[in-house]
């Protein structure tokens, strides 16, 4: 291999008799020599140096021309040879063509280097932008050269394989084969034909597509594959292909679709990751249950321990997060399943309205007023801190939600008021949480509008307002179409479908699970096609199933909850992969101030709204209800992950939402116990007769 000086000499050669494309190459060489001489080359030694390089390059190019002519004659001789079969002719001609291509590419590389030197000499070394552009062009040239070399190497491997097969076929012809060997040989040929038919040629089909970039990647073999020393290089290259690719941006890739579809494959990284999460989630969940915390924290801790801030043992991070998305889907389905109009009417209108007619009104108006006040506070703080309105609306809406499972756990065993005319705080609290769940579905529905609203900004206020109005109109039309579809399905489809599932699932419960899952995925795809979020489709699927009656909802929930629970474990563990304890420790004072501010604001706003809605005789329960609503719902983690992915919020805001949500849920039991101890009604002692 030549040194750097020899390469520069060759790049500065005078015009030579060149093959195809010689005129262009000659002009490039002339310009490079002119620039080189203008910069002051050495007098005597420099000329001799250049002349020696010229003689070497001239001899090599003449030799290349002679070899090309010999290859052309060899190709004509092979094509005219009647003793060779068509397959042998095709193989030999293809081999000669590969060698021709290698010679031409080598020559082109030399003159591409000359062109790069010419561009570098014409530029200014103090101009960083120019140097960056030159480096980018050289990088693109190297990428293209690497791709061409890779293709040639693959062609040579294929030629080698065909040559081995031809030799094997010749050996089989010279000896007698048993019946079994003949059958196996026929099966092998059929399998080869099948592999050629189903091969997609994805690389060749996409390499010229607009927007496709060539990237340099590292291929890291699996530890198990590298430990098998008895394998040849070819056997390693034709292995299952589950090695990892790493690009220059440190992104890691794992095989998604293999070239050979006849061999079954499994992603062992993903299997190990799911097994590890399942095993570690159990002790983490037990620990949180022991100390009186929701098991959700245990699953997040599991993700923290296995993630980048812990053991860093999760390899298929994207695949784990994708599987966790199904936990979100089924969680929202069960939330919709709990939102049964018949159930709500029975619990909050029929039973409660007779004795406490104001509970339903408080449950409906309270969360709406709280959300509006939280959004107003968020916009004011956002304007003061120069935060975009879309971010302010999103953050304040996320923080306005409260955790239904956590509050339901608080209410177990709580004392209820026995005074006549008093409002039951548990009924008010659960009613407000149900309405917040409905608000969650609506907010998920308008998230695409927020994403599009924050995607671009216009200098003109009128244009921005017009764009926002157009987006709002589009969202309302989409929601109207979804609601009309739901009404039609509730009237004509859902009833017969549920009855058919119930009849078919007797003694075969997997039919019920599969049928409900398929219906959920159908609604998910429908809302996605109507440009509404997929999560809303899952919520509506649950609401449609619950409209068929309490018995149907209970039966479906009993079979779908285990599926939801396992997938929710994976989801919360995937959230833990993005929680960094070092960040919390470094910013603990800031996070504590933010968390206390959010808790205090929610507590004050809830108490203010309830003081306006509650009757005077039940004003004391506003402190208990406000304490139950003062934390942030775990669904803010779901919304935050969606907004971070869509770049509605920044990385820093996402980390703040994760931390504030976690800390507020940790503070919730303390605040609830204080409120119950000071404000809960005491059961009256009855005197013995």
From TrEMBL:
<dbReference type="InterPro" id="IPR006153">
    <property type="entry name" value="Cation/H_exchanger_TM"/>
</dbReference>
<keyword id="KW-1133">Transmembrane helix</keyword>
<protein>
    <submittedName>
        <fullName>Transmembrane and coiled-coil domain-containing protein 3</fullName>
    </submittedName>
</protein>
<feature type="transmembrane region" description="Helical">
    <location>
        <begin position="566"/>
        <end position="586"/>
    </location>
</feature>
<dbReference type="Pfam" id="PF00999">
    <property type="entry name" value="Na_H_Exchanger"/>
</dbReference>
<feature type="signal peptide">
    <location>
        <begin position="1"/>
        <end position="22"/>
    </location>
</feature>
<feature type="transmembrane region" description="Helical">
    <location>
        <begin position="653"/>
        <end position="672"/>
    </location>
</feature>
<feature type="transmembrane region" description="Helical">
    <location>
        <begin position="427"/>
        <end position="451"/>
    </location>
</feature>
<keyword id="KW-0050">Antiport</keyword>
<keyword id="KW-0812">Transmembrane</keyword>
<feature type="transmembrane region" description="Helical">
    <location>
        <begin position="471"/>
        <end position="490"/>
    </location>
</feature>
<dbReference type="InterPro" id="IPR038770">
    <property type="entry name" value="Na+/solute_symporter_sf"/>
</dbReference>
<keyword id="KW-0732">Signal</keyword>
<feature type="domain" description="Cation/H+ exchanger transmembrane">
    <location>
        <begin position="280"/>
        <end position="672"/>
    </location>
</feature>
<keyword id="KW-0175">Coiled coil</keyword>
<dbReference type="GO" id="GO:0016020">
    <property type="term" value="C:membrane"/>
</dbReference>
<feature type="coiled-coil region">
    <location>
        <begin position="132"/>
        <end position="204"/>
    </location>
</feature>
<keyword id="KW-0406">Ion transport</keyword>
<feature type="transmembrane region" description="Helical">
    <location>
        <begin position="511"/>
        <end position="530"/>
    </location>
</feature>
<feature type="transmembrane region" description="Helical">
    <location>
        <begin position="593"/>
        <end position="614"/>
    </location>
</feature>
<dbReference type="InterPro" id="IPR045158">
    <property type="entry name" value="KEA4/5/6-like"/>
</dbReference>
<keyword id="KW-0813">Transport</keyword>
<feature type="coiled-coil region">
    <location>
        <begin position="61"/>
        <end position="88"/>
    </location>
</feature>
<feature type="transmembrane region" description="Helical">
    <location>
        <begin position="620"/>
        <end position="641"/>
    </location>
</feature>
<dbReference type="GO" id="GO:0015386">
    <property type="term" value="F:potassium:proton antiporter activity"/>
</dbReference>
<keyword id="KW-0472">Membrane</keyword>
């Amino acid at each position: 291999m030549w040194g750097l000086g020899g390469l520069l000499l060759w790049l500065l050669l005078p015009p030579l008799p060149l093959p195809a494309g010689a005129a262009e190459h000659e002009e490039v060489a002339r310009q490079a020599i002119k620039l080189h001489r203008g910069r002051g080359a050495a007098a005597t030694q420099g000329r001799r140096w250049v002349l020696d390089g010229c003689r070497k390059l001239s001899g090599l190019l003449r030799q290349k021309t002679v070899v090309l002519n010999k290859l052309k004659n060899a190709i004509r001789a092979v094509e005219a040879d009647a003793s060779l079969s068509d397959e042998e002719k095709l193989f030999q001609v293809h081999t000669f063509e590969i060698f021709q291509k290698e010679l031409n590419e080598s020559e082109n590389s030399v003159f591409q280097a000359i062109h790069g030197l010419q561009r570098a000499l014409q530029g200014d070394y103090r101009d960083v932008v120019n140097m960056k552009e030159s480096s980018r062009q050289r990088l693109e040239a190297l990428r293209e050269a690497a791709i061409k070399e890779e293709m040639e190497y693959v062609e040579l491997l294929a030629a080698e394989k065909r040559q081995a097969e031809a030799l094997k076929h010749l050996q089989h012809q010279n000896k007698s084969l048993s019946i079994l060997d003949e059958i196996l040989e026929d099966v092998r040929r059929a399998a080869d034909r099948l592999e050629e038919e189903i091969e997609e040629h994805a690389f060749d089909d996409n390499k010229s597509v607009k927007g496709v970039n060539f990237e340099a990647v590292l291929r890291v073999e699996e530890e198990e594959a590298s430990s098998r020393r008895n394998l040849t290089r070819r056997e390693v290259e034709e292995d299952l292909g589950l090695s990892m690719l790493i690009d220059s941006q440190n992104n890691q890739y794992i095989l998604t679709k293999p070239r050979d579809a006849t061999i079954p494959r499994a992603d062992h990284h993903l299997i190990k990751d799911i097994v590890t999460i399942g095993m570690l989630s159990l002790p983490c969940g037990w620990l949180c249950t022991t100390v009186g915390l929701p098991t959700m924290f245990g699953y997040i801790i599991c993700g923290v321990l296995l993630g980048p801030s812990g053991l860093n043992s999760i390899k298929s991070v994207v695949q784990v997060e994708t599987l966790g998305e199904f936990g979100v889907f089924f969680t929202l389905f069960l939330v919709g399943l709990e939102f049964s109009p018949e159930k709500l009417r029975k619990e909050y209108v029929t039973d409660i309205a007779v004795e406490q007619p104001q509970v339903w009104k408080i449950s409906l108006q309270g969360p709406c007023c709280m959300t509006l006040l939280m959004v107003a506070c968020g916009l004011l703080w956002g304007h003061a801190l120069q935060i975009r309105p879309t971010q302010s609306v999103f953050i304040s809406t996320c923080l306005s939600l409260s955790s239904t499972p956590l509050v339901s756990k608080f209410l177990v065993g709580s004392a209820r008021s026995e005074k006549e005319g008093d409002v039951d705080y548990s009924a008010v609290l659960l009613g407000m949480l149900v309405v917040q769940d409905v608000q969650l579905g609506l907010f998920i529905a308008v998230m695409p509008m927020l994403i599009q609203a924050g995607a671009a900004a216009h200098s003109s206020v009128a244009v921005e307002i017009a764009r926002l109005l157009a987006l709002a109109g589009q969202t309302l039309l989409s929601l109207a179409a979804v609601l009309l579809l739901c009404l039609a399905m509730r009237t004509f489809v859902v009833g017969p479908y549920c009855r058919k599932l119930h009849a078919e699932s007797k003694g075969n419960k997997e039919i019920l699970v599969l049928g409900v899952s398929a219906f959920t995925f159908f609604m998910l795809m429908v809302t996605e096609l109507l440009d509404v979020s997929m999560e809303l489709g899952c919520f509506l699927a649950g609401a449609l199933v619950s409209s068929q009656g309490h018995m149907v909802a209970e039966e479906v929930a009993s079979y779908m909850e285990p599926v939801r629970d396992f997938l929710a474990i994976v989801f919360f563990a995937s959230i833990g992969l993005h929680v960094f304890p070092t960040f919390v420790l470094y910013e603990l004072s800031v996070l504590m101030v933010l968390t206390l501010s959010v808790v205090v604001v929610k507590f004050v706003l809830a108490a203010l709204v309830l003081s306006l809605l509650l009757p005077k005789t039940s004003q004391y329960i506003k402190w208990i209800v406000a304490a139950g609503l003062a934390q942030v719902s775990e669904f803010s983690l779901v919304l935050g992950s969606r907004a971070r992915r869509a770049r509605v919020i920044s990385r820093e805001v996402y980390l703040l939402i994760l931390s504030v949500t976690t800390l507020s849920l940790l503070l919730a039991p303390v605040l609830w116990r204080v409120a119950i101890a000071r404000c809960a009604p005491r059961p009256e002692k009855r005197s013995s007769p």
